[in-house]
């Protein structure tokens, strides 16, 4: 007989979304179990790997809700679900206040407006991974401790396998213990799926995002494998917007040199100059964003064919702009960067066709000088990022790859994080939070709002709605 456990809420996944949902639910008086497939107190997930900056579309989370809503609409080109966008805008300020009350520490990293809420202690300004004991790690351990103090239970090494259904209502989770002890049934009035997307499932990534997923660098912890997506779909959930991911442009050396990921990102080099494929031609609008460029590279026939082409002014300008910039951290990490006094010499070093590369650079330079960037193929926009000339020797080339952190689409939810069916109606007893959900980012385009805030707000709102439904709030 499977072991039986009964709770008010079962949460699947122990990242920022799952632990926010679980700890908030326990604070509201609910009996909570959290199922986490990872083992040990510091099990890996994308939250731990993150930079710990809480923002909404690169705005201060404490900005007035109408300003945050406008920022979300601008960032997503008006494609975000209006109800979810409103929920993020209205809840973000209260959410960071709640985290502070929970014991999470914050600091201001700089005068930059969107970096006013950074989980402390911050990651060091260095290439490679740096997460143990840093702000996101401390945040998760704090929330886990609070959950335990409120009577909640975390079952580590426990992978959710299927949702239970009774009288047409989600009634709990069947999970494998992962240690040979057989299955367990966790009965609950509500289930929150917060398992972090499907970026670690190469079959799903290949089906929806990239023809050759092995050529994408896993920039996160790769722990999101689509279990929540699969289980929700089996119960009748609406699955949407699976085509895009949040990630950054990385050095191609990330596949062999661990010091070159998840930082430094090479977005600014590509956005400052141009990004070309093996034929020497541009592949995308470099002015959009690094997230957009990473998705464009991923969808090429060969995602490992691209190069950032730039000059000395870009290397010393945008190359130093990021929080952990390519200049000097790509060099200190041992990443590849080619340098030459002429474009012909640079093409030879990179193995690119010299005539085609020279024509591409010349065409770009001419369009920049005459205001004709919008007529290029592909067009180059300048409303988000300035286009720099490539005219100051020495010239540089850096081999690129797309780094995938988390998938942007998945389970359709409403403003209370209730899972919806194909008709838009909520599925009784089933909620979802964080990067396993759809509706905010990646709708019709590679747009980014902020993964930590998406997880925090949707997790909190799920807990609060469940408590309301159970008469606890």
First and last CA, distance = 36 Å
In angstroms, what is the radius of gyration? 23 Å
Shape designation:
elongated
Instruction: Give the helix tally.
Output: 14
Look at the helices and sheets and give the structural class: alpha/beta
> How can the largest sheet be summarized?
8 strands, mixed
Q: Uncertain regions: pLDDT < 50 for 5+ in a row?
A: none
Mean pLDDT: 96
- How much strand? 15-25%
Q: Count every beta strand, where a strand is a DSSP E run of 2 or more residues.
A: 18
- Helicity level: 25-40%
Protein traits:
32% helix; 14 helices; alpha/beta; six-stranded mixed sheet; 473 residues; eight-stranded mixed sheet
Q: Would you kindly provide a brief summary of this structure?
A:
The chain is α/β, with parallel strands linked by helices. Helices cover 32% and strands 21% of the residues.
Tell me about this structure.
By secondary structure, this protein is α/β, with parallel strands linked by helices. Helix content is 32%, strand content 21%. The chain has 14 helices and 18 strands. Strands 1, 2, 5, 6, 7, 8, 17 and 18 form an 8-stranded mixed beta sheet that branches. Strands 9, 11, 12, 13, 14 and 15 form a 6-stranded mixed beta sheet that branches. Strand 17 and strand 18 form a beta hairpin. The longest helix is centred in the N-terminal third of the chain and has 21 residues, at 82-102. The protein is elongated and about 70 Å long. The model has no long low-confidence stretch (mean pLDDT 96).
